[in-house]
Structure formats: structure tokens, C-alpha cells
Amino acid sequence: MDRRRFLLTSLVGALAAPFAAGAQQARKLPTIGYLSAGSAVSAYHPTFVSGLHDLGCFQGKNISIEPRYAEEATKAHLW
């Protein structure tokens, strides 16, 4: 390998290295906690999600919804 080719290849590799490492980190979605009084999805859950859609918030796209049920929580903490 001649000297010019070696120097050119080394220079290009040194200049390209910072661009390869500049990837963006995955953005963590904001999480909304939804607490329902019953043990299953309440009648208000679809209305709540529909209201979020009207505001431009979509599950898995720009928000995360974590439903929790109060009845299950009280049963789990009885014993």
C-alpha cells in the first residue's frame, strides 16, 4: 500500500469516527397513570383515551398509559 493511500484512508477514518458515534438516544415516553375504582376497565377509560386523542396524544406514539385498578390493590394488601 502506498503512503498517500494510507494517509488518505487514515484521515477519512479519523474524520468519520465522530459521526458514527453521534446517534440519538431513544426518547422515553411520558407515562400517564390511570386509576379505576373497579377491578376491570371502567366505562370512563374509553372516554379518557378519546379525550387524549383529541389533544394529539396517542398510546405508544407520544405517551404511555398505565391502568391500575383500586379493587386489585386492596385485595393484594389484605394479607
Would you mind describing this structure in some detail?
- The chain is α+β, with helices and mostly antiparallel strands and 79 residues long.
- The protein has a domain at 36-79.
- It has helices at residues 3-20, 44-54, 70-76; strands spanning 31-36, 64-69.
- Helix 2 links the parallel strand 1 (31-36) and strand 2.
- The radius of gyration is 26 Å and the shape is rod-shaped.
- 0% of the residues are buried.
Describe the SSE topology:
Blueprint: H1 3-20, E1 31-36, H2 44-54, E2 64-69, H3 70-76
Parallel strand pairs: 1-2
Short description:
The chain is α+β, with helices and mostly antiparallel strands and about 80 residues long. It contains 3 helices and 2 strands. It has a domain at about 35-79.
- Spans where pLDDT lies below 50 across 5 or more residues: none
Structural Rg: 26 Å
Structural class: alpha+beta
- Which band does the percent of strand residues land in? 15-25%
Intertermini distance:
76 Å
Largest sheet: 2 strands, parallel
Count the E strands: 2
Helix content: 40-55%
Mean pLDDT: 75
**Oligomeric category:** single chain
Global outline: rod-shaped
The main sheet orders its strands as 1-2
Helix segment tally: 3
Order of helices and strands: HEHEH
